[in-house]
Amino acid sequence: MTIEDFRPTQKITTFYPPQRVLMGPGPSDTHSRVLSAMARPTLGHLDPVFTAMMEELKSLLRYAFQTKNLMTFPVSGPGSVGMEMCFVNMIVPGDKVIVCRNGVFGSRMIENVERHGGVAVVVDDKWGEPVDPQKVEDALKQNPDAKILAFVHAETSTGVLSDAKTLCELAHRHGCLNIVDTVTSLGGSPLKVDEWGIDAIYSGSQKCLSCPPGLSPVSFSERVIELVKNRKEKVHSWFMDLNLLLGYWGTTRTYHHTAPTNALYALHESLFMLYEEGLEHSWARHDRNYKALKAGLETFGMKYVVDERYRLPQLNAVYVPEGVDEKEVRRRLLDEYNLEIGAGLGDFAGKIWRFGLMGYSSKIENIVLCLNALETVFSDMGMKLEHGAAESAAHHSYAANPMPSKFSE
């Protein structure tokens, strides 16, 4: 065989992706400032200019997480790597871990516990409902030898928000550490690592931070660092071993791996933009836009999966109207309006849509586009609608819910 035998048979040219409006469960739209940051000159991952930027990035992440934890940094990999990093460092074979499951991502936590040799004690709640603190307390009492409580703060598969503060308090009261998934909540909903007593936390770059996928912000309390330092056996992952990463993300800058420098530029810029806006302003913006989208969706007779008290403003899970072809609606939105919304997962596959209002995607023009596009598609499918009612309802919501003028940081 010759080199030519391996030439691609299909015609390949430079790839130019279409310009989409991303209103699904992630990723979200990326601001031009963040894309521009990614295109800046590549530096070596031990270059002193780059390592100085790393220190700024850690400081910005501490602001976003509301923590003083020294080990607060982005893992080179998606949120799933951040999740595995928490479990692989904190679990030794035989450890009992109480895991809360009320959606897809609680199930992934269970998988992590079992793969690392732990014993998962599962606390189940119905999909679309928050984790029940009473069930958790009962499980902690029944399992006094449990080492860790793990739960999802913002369940992306259903759009439900659980009470992280109460759950973390329960864990500490019963002598447990905690692991918290905040992939969808960081930057979009109130999150206070130190005040709530969160020990290990992970998130993703592509949701409310509006950075391209591929980085997972994490933060670890001193309790976790001491646990990992005192392990009697090596962490069962070289790449995710906190003992080794302490050298690279700490002060010595010991070589560990080639960090994705340009991706980190992007995260630095997105976090800087969050800092410029202010955390409280970001939280209020997400909530205000959710209320406007909700007002518009309700004119179509659409109902939310989650009770309003526990609803994520940045992830709107709604039931598909009866008689509507949910796949066809998503196809037409994508093909005709370049608008992406999400389908249901697991138990909700084919039954719900998930409308994301995350980060840069959470803005008035996206909501107006979405509501008008849905109105057209629904009308074509024979649904009886009042023309313009959805957009009008959204604008009335904006008028009734102005942004606060001042924020205390």
UniProtKB/TrEMBL annotation:
Keyword annotations: Aminotransferase, Pyridoxal phosphate, Transferase
Stretches assigned to the Aminotransferase class V domain: 42-344
A single MF term (Gene Ontology): alanine-glyoxylate transaminase activity
InterPro entries for this protein: Aminotrans_V_dom, Aminotrans_V_PyrdxlP_BS, PyrdxlP-dep_Trfase, PyrdxlP-dep_Trfase_major, PyrdxlP-dep_Trfase_small, SP_NH2Trfase/AEP_transaminase
Keyword Phosphoprotein among UniProt keywords: no
Needed co-factor(s): pyridoxal 5'-phosphate
Location of N6-(pyridoxal phosphate)lysine modifications: 207
Domain of life: Bacteria
Record's keyword annotation contains Nucleus: no
Residues reported in the UniProt entry to bind substrate: 354
GO biological process, one term: glycine biosynthetic process, by transamination of glyoxylate
Pfam families per record: Aminotran_5
Similarity comment: Belongs to the class-V pyridoxal-phosphate-dependent aminotransferase family.
PANTHER family (alphabetical): ALANINE--GLYOXYLATE AMINOTRANSFERASE, AMINOTRANSFERASE CLASS V
Protein name (database record): Alanine-glyoxylate aminotransferase apoenzyme
Species of provenance: Nitrosomonas cryotolerans ATCC 49181
Source species taxonomy: Bacteria, Pseudomonadati, Pseudomonadota, Betaproteobacteria, Nitrosomonadales
